[in-house]
Hints:
Strand order of the largest sheet: 1-2-3-4-5
Largest sheet: 5 strands, antiparallel
Structural class: alpha/beta
Number of strands: 18
Distance between the termini: 86 Å
Number of helices: 16
Strand content: 15-25%
Radius of gyration: 31 Å
Amino acid sequence: MKKGSLETTNKDHLLYKHPPLDIAILGGIRLEGLDRMRVTLKVQVEHLAIRHNLDLYNDNQTEKLIRKVAERLEVGTSVVASALTDLTDQLEQYRLEEIERQTKKEDKRKLLSVEEVKAAKLYLSSPNLMQRTMEDIGKAGVIGEETNRLLMYLIFTSRKRENPLHIISLGSSGIGKTHLQEKVSALIPDEHKIEITSLSGNAFYYFGQQELRNKLILIEDLDGAEEVLYPLREIKSKKRITKTVVIKNTKGETRTVTLLVEGPVCVSGCTTKESLYEDNANRSFLIYIDESKEQDEKIMEFQRRMSAGKVDLSKQWEIIEQFKDMQRILKPVSIRNPFAEQLKIPEEIFKPRRTNAHYLAFIEAVTFYHQYQREPQYDKETGEEFIETTVEDISEANKLIREILLRKSDDLNGACRNYFENLKSWMKAEDKNTFTNISARQALKVKLGTQKRYMAALQEWGLVRKTKGDKKKGFAYEVTTYEDQQQRSKRINGVLDSILSKIRQEVQEVQK
């Protein structure tokens, strides 16, 4: 059989030559659905042409096209049949090669030079690694948010482990949630992350089977991704999602196909609506963006310096590239925490089972980041290589996770807690014993509807009560306690510090 040539330079306009026929495949071919080969052909002989849409796997449609071309273009049916048969074979081979190219797990990592590897290892081996990392993230363009930025960076780093952590940023609209996520994720290599602006309900099911494995998934706005909350929750917990769909073949027969997408993944998202994402929030670390006046001033000062041309953007770029190199040399490694059985979370934490798992996993994430400062050890029975958590890893984790545990023990959600703390600070500053909704609303700059929700919650938990007034003239309120948050924080810190102190003492005794 005479062979023609297929030119694939332009994927949307494939060209096939089988003299005397010139055939163009308009719009290219679809890679999905191997049981069909739907194409739009332009078959031409000199100045005469026929355009036809068909499935090349459908014999009836193909035979009709052969007769049509032979009749109108005055070419023998055997020539046309030979051309279409060969074209189908070549398109089949081309499609398989394209699928293999797209799905093949290519090593897309940047090839680091010897000097780059040495610099990255030197950084990860340096003393005070956590403090230095936190400071350099700031130099890379993240303003303020010292605890949040380091916490988020370590959680993003956990994507390389079998049980990655997840994070949700909460705060008012326009306060900088997305900005923090973008800036910290800029430190992660592009090949290790997938950034998503919007998602349809079935979007997650149509990734390649291993396309998401150990990836950082960044969702800019969870408020617009309600449809994917279920698959998102499942891939976090089960590390895989499946969906069975019904498809029809060319003969109209139906059959089922199961779509499988494997994790694990690290998921990060931003939202203003904490209450809407409870199931996903329970699987994630929740951080609250700093909305203080001090943070506002830090950001505005940076904006002024940027406008004045006093920010060294080239230095920022160098730091970002260095962080990417460090991320590339971090290796998946097993971690064992010899102190895990002694670690306990405060009893007042809500949903303690999941929070306890998060606490232990975060300590492991800190250990993982310090892997170039740990001597590898080997299991005597299995020979498995692992590194061990140190007391300092636990100490560093405790510093970062205190606020997380405090929030998880609070009866109020984050936004309401921020309102209550601001309310107390304002009343102290103004030396007030009581307040009205109007005066508080004006001073704290909150919307009427928002304040109503906050006040209902505060009264429900007995943190605020009415003192006088009526519905017509309005009520006056007083704060029943100014120390609830401080007392809770003191109790939580006391538990963490007590356990850590006991572990330190035991280690010192063993070393004597």
